[in-house]
């Protein structure tokens, strides 16, 4: 059975070129970058090169790159690190559709006396720049808005928001995990940016936080003082080499977007189907689709049985269905929320795209036949 993997927003396959580049640092140049002997110094030299290559790629200085274990740690370091270093500023602005590593960090800070303003989004899943600006106060520490939403793929106006924050002397952070390497981002007025390697064909367990020079931030992990004294712990040199190597991995973005649109067109022919999120301000490989009156978890498992791997916007727990807070925030009706799927494409052929459409249609129709929730076609239109 052929496997069609459509869950690239969750994780990507490590590219063969990345694996080959990393091998040397597992078996030959395996030294600890803090060691003073020649093998350690070789690792330290490679670490310095990696800082420089990442910096050249995004357009910053090498000492502004802090390697971490991934997006979650980077997001925690950004918000908690700012909070520790700026005790007089105790107000944060973010959106209601951020990744859990931002939302849960904000909840943790709320328990410590911080005030958080959560900005809403439009039915397309977009933050209004004016709404963000209105929330900024004299005691605002940071505004944190993600670049691309991980569920519905909407691209937020982060550069505009960053410009406003600069004028108001407020730090701006963006979670760029889903947008990094897929589209360009001007860092001129961005103070902090989080990136995760396993979304761009490098291994899990590696990422980085860009911290603009002059940003007042403290470490949240203490120890040996690695990564400019901001992230202690023995550096994951193979992973760091891997994330740098992944910068050279090329994908045919135009073809992926073409296949995405082909699949969307096919899925919308299924009665009771709707696309969630903006159609134009959307990352090129994301499809978030809902089917009225069925259970997305069941559909996902049925697709798994024919070799199509997707994720669902609603997770089936032992006692209840957990609704997607992102879909809820954009006003998707409950009977659509529970029937949602997220497809995030990598390289895919027309034949594979058509097979995906065919199988989703087939499985949706089976689930609709047994669903107690029937829909009126005229009402759905």
Describe what this molecule looks like in 3D.
The protein is of the alpha/beta class. It folds into two domains: 16-246, Type I PLP-dependent aspartate aminotransferase-like (Major domain) (Aspartate Aminotransferase, domain 2, 3-Layer(aba) Sandwich), CATH 3.40.640.10; 251-380, Alpha-Beta Complex (Aspartate Aminotransferase, domain 1), CATH 3.90.1150. It has helices at residues 16-27, 38-58, 71-85, 100-110, 129-135, 158-167, 226-229, 237-246, 253-267, 296-304, 325-329, 334-337, 350-370, 377-380, and strands at residues 4-5, 65-68, 91-95, 115-119, 140-144, 171-175, 192-196, 207-211, 273-275, 286-291, 308-309, 311-312, 315-316, 321-322, 340-344. The longest helix has 21 residues, at 38-58. The model is unreliable at 314-320 (pLDDT under 50).
What descriptors fit this protein?
single chain; 14 helices; 381 residues; Aspartate Aminotransferase, domain 1; globular; alpha/beta; 4-stranded antiparallel β-sheet; 2 domains
Helix and strand arrangement:
Layout: E1 4-5, H1 16-27, H2 38-58, E2 65-68, H3 71-85, E3 91-95, H4 100-110, E4 115-119, H5 129-135, E5 140-144, H6 158-167, E6 171-175, E7 192-196, E8 207-211, H7 226-229, H8 237-246, H9 253-267, E9 273-275, E10 286-291, H10 296-304, E11 308-309, E12 311-312, E13 315-316, E14 321-322, H11 325-329, H12 334-337, E15 340-344, H13 350-370, H14 377-380
Parallel strand pairs: 1-11, 3-4, 3-5, 5-6, 6-7
Antiparallel strand pairs: 2-8, 7-8, 9-10, 10-15, 12-15, 13-14
Helix pairs in contact: 1-8, 2-8, 3-4, 9-13, 10-13
């Amino acid at each position: 059975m052929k496997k069609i993997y459509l869950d690239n927003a969750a994780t990507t396959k490590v590219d063969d070129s990345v694996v080959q580049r990393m091998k040397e640092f597992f078996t030959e140049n395996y030294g600890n970058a803090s060691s003073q002997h020649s093998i350690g110094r070789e690792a330290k030299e490679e670490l310095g090169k990696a800082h420089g290559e990442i910096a050249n790629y995004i357009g910053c200085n090498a000492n502004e790159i802090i390697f971490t274990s991934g997006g979650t740690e980077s997001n925690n370091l950004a918000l908690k690190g700012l909070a520790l270093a700026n005790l007089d500023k105790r107000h944060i602005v973010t959106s209601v559709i951020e990744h859990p590593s931002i939302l849960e960090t904000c909840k943790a800070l709320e328990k410590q006396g911080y005030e958080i303003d959560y900005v809403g989004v439009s039915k397309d899943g977009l933050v209004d720049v004016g709404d963000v600006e209105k929330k900024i106060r004299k005691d605002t520490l940071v505004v944190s808005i993600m670049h691309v939403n991980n569920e519905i793929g909407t691209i937020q106006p982060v550069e505009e928001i960053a410009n406003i924050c600069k004028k108001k002397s407020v730090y701006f952070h963006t979670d760029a995990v889903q947008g990094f390497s897929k589209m360009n981002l001007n860092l001129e007025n961005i103070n902090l940016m989080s990136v995760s390697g396993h979304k761009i064909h490098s291994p899990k367990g590696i990422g980085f936080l860009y911290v603009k020079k002059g940003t007042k931030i403290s470490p949240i992990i203490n120890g040996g003082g690695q990564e400019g004294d901001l992230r202690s712990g023995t550096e994951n040199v193979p992973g760091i080499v891997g994330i740098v190597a992944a910068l050279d991995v090329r994908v045919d973005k135009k073809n992926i977007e073409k296949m995405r649109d082909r699949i969307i067109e096919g899925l919308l022919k299924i009665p009771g189907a709707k696309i969630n999120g903006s159609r134009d301000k959307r990352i090129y490989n994301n499809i978030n689709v809902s089917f009225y009156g069925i259970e997305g978890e069941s559909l996902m498992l049925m697709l798994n049985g024919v070799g199509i791997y997707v994720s669902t916007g609603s997770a089936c727990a032992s006692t209840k269905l957990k609704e997607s807070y992102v879909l809820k925030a954009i006003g998707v009706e409950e009977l659509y929320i529970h029937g949602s799927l997220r497809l995030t494409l990598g390289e895919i052929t027309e034949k594979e795209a058509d097979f995906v459409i065919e199988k989703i249609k087939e499985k949706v129709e089976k689930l609709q036949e047994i669903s107690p929730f029937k829909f009126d076609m005229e009402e759905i239109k």
